[in-house]
Give the backbone structure.
Amino acid sequence: MRTKIVAGNWKMNNDINSSITLINDIKNGLAQKELNVKVVICPPFTSLSIASELIKNTPIKLGAQNMYFEKSGAFTGEISPLMLKSVGCEYVILGHSERRTIFGETNQLINKKIKSAVDNGLKPIFCIGETLEERELGKTFEVVETQIREGLQGISETELSDLIIAYEPVWAIGTGKNATPEQAEEVHLFIRDLISKIYSQKFAENLIIQYGGSVKPENSKDLMSKPNIDGALVGGACLIADSFIKIIESAQ
Ligand code: 13P
């Protein structure tokens, strides 16, 4: 039985003050609720410290949106896994399509980051997904397979025990046009089968595969009721406490 995970990727939004407000609103909205879903928030680096304080003694967990693979050194502007651990992060989003397309991250770089995250005790939320052009050319499975094979290259099943995969079709991110539950389920099933071929069936069965891309309270229940969709990675809708809470509730 897989426990669903709903994670909020804040992207480059919220300064300290608005972070405090949003976290308090999420906390209050979730208080007294019996949660059988895991909840993760991923604020920008500058708000991680305050977020960590505010979520103490709540079921909410903390994640970062990116990291570099080295532990320390002359890497101006970068953040290391040890720094994320020290501020209270348990999760880290890696390979987000915005990192790939805007900042040129390759599967090879993402592979190093995933290896470093697991070596340093962080749970990677590894994002993959095809562009609209790739989908229209019928290349979805091919693209997703390459991202997975290259992203996880040389990393063992034991090392990946805390891996989460987030399937985020690029054409669905920030467009308001989510994949239909059927479209998402088809790819999630493909991912699980592929993982069982690369690793073991048991590992594949336990793997959490989230869907991301225009998840809203209006579509989250239908998406997450599919057998292979184990939660959501939410962008825009996680910036409004009420919508984020509704999405969490719909995963119950
Ligand atoms: P939206 O929910 O805004 O489409 O963003 C999805 C996403 O990129 C989450 O990582």
